[in-house]
Write a structure and sequence with these properties.
single chain; Homeodomain-like_sf; about 220 residues; mainly alpha
């Protein structure tokens, strides 16, 4: 029995998510994605999504819509509770919805997102999308709070935090599929929240000589 248009589209999105995650955004061909999706027509991906940009946008958006509904609710809760300048609350609004989604759904979405972090083509596709607005809003608020950091350092810290938490989620997703023992979803949230806040709130400079001296003193007292 021939697949319906919606079934074919879903199969293509599933295949694209996996192949983009495994091989890279610009390496996986539309033809290979069509074949992996079980399509008789090797041009099926092009038929449904026009080009690579359209397919990347569709893969990114499909799951992000649900994730962002959760983010927007958490942002609304932050505003209602008057904790707009609370760094942990904002970081939680960013990463908890993604972690809860990835840990409760099968697929390659975490690993796909990690690929998009290091692919200029993917960034050009996803950044203007409406679904990117909640992330942009949260990072804007964080930037306005972290005024003790110089602007360049502030931008770098936020980028490091984004790469860190997406990388940890992608690693957890991979380990799950390998059957490896990892942190529970709740432990993952606690650990990522703590480490992300650490990245944002760490001092800009550490005197290595002082740090070495302190460590030596601690060893002497043990």
């Amino acid at each position: 029995m021939a697949r319906s248009g919606e079934e074919s589209r879903t199969a293509l999105l599933d295949a694209a998510e996996e192949l983009f995650a495994v091989h890279g955004i610009e390496t996986a061909s539309l033809r290979d994605i069509s074949i992996a999706a079980g399509q008789r027509n090797n041009s099926a991906a092009q038929y449904h999504f026009v080009d690579r940009a359209g397919l990347v946008a569709a893969v990114f958006t499909r799951r992000m819509n649900d994730i962002n509904e959760h983010r927007l609710q958490m942002i609304a809760d932050i505003d209602a509770q008057g904790v707009q300048r609370d760094v942990p609350a904002l970081v939680a609004a960013l990463m908890v919805p993604l972690i809860e989604y990835v840990t409760s759904h099968e697929g390659w979405y975490g690993r796909f997102l990690l690929r998009t972090q290091f692919d200029q083509f993917a960034k050009l596709v996803k950044n203007p999308l409406p679904v990117s607005v909640p992330v942009i809003e949260i990072t804007r608020r964080l930037s306005e709070i972290l005024t003790e950091l110089p602007p360049r350092i502030r931008r770098a810290r936020i980028e490091q935090m984004m790469t860190h938490y997406i990388g940890v989620v992608a690693d957890w997703e991979w380990a799950r599929d390998q059957g490896s023992t990892r942190l529970s979803p709740a432990e993952l949230i606690d650990d990522v929240l703590a480490s992300c806040c650490g990245i944002l709130l760490a001092p800009t400079q550490i005197d290595l000589n002082t740090l070495i001296s302190k460590n030596s003193s601690l060893k002497d007292t043990q």
